[in-house]
Here is the input.
Amino acid sequence: MLNIWKKVYTAGTSSLLLFTLLISAGAGSASAAEATVTQGAEPDVFRIVALGDSITAGYEPGMTDPNVKPYGYAERLLEQGWYHGRSALSNYGILGLTTTGLLNYTAAIKDGAVTTADGIQPGLPDPRIQQFAALTPQIKTELGEADLITLTIGGNDVSSLLLTAKDLTEEAFKAELDQLLASYSTNVKTALENIRTVNPQATILLADQYQPAPKIAVSSSYLKLMSAAQQFTLAAEGVASSMNQPGAPVKVAHVAEKFAGVEASLTHIIGAGAADFHPTQLGYETIARVFAESYWGEYRTPSVPVWTAASAPMSIVVKGVELNTPNKPILKNGQNFLALKDILNAVGANGKWDNKTQSASIVYGGRTVVITIGSKTIKVNGAAVTVDTPAFLQKVGQEDKTYLPLAALATGLGFDVNYSSKLRTAFINP
Here is the structure.
């Protein structure tokens, strides 16, 4: 059963072939450790709720391995959130969802009423749809707490036009396009109104519709399809403009322009066995970049290349700042260790070294963590906590530097610790 809470997010895929994957990956932990908050205060968490179709779900063709979890734009957006502080993602991308389905689903969410699969949209191929239908009261709560709401929707509405464009006359193509645009605008605006009823203030980012077919594949209809994509962008902008209010922004994430001319590398339409409009990993990164730049004005990546050997230390980001120190992190038994002084500077903590006991005491926010060289336990406010690999002394030049296990220390101090295996980056936030 899907279990979505502070630090756990759903991750979607596609097609009935993926049932095994979806059961095992439908809820994936996004946190290495849930932070404990000093004095019982609720941590300030930036909350993202992603709604929409299989693009939101992160589907790629061939995802039949139950050990493979989707890594789409929403998961990348969560990583971008970690660069800015504590963040959580709830991903409710539904495979095969149309704008009518989104309208129905958001209406049920607005009412906080459990619905049915057919109540959302008859014939949806998503094997999780019954679970999504039952989660509407929970989703209403999550939606109401969201800081950022993202939407990708409309691709399933227009896919038929892509397939038939070459066979339609200009007049027939225009007539079908006009009908699709009218339906899209009406449905999406009503869905946004439902969302606004639940959350009057969150930023909403609505992606426009990219055109997935490269010119080489649809040479005779490429210009028509590109014109259609541009008109969908205008429709999205019109809907967003009608909903945009001071203190309650609704913006368009201009994805379509980033796909124009490079469709072959950003989608699977040529490489898949059958035509598939979904993004490649590069395509999903492109979408995530557009969303991140629309909200934060930037899309960050680690300075250490992700293809670096697994034996090399990972990138470490503390309170939004990537550590860059001459005392390089040391990877030992799968854990990253940092020099004591670098840790103190990174987290803004106070600390002292006791030569007699060979231990470091670090104080932050009312917590005290004591780490002793060679000991497989650390003390957090006097209580012993087991660690896999103890602190050690490392010769750096002519000095012996005290290296402490970063994750254990950060957790002991009540920090939020997240790790992205894709970026090989640990994110630590107070």
Observations:
- The chain is about 35% helix and 20% strand.
- The longest strand covers residues 46-52.
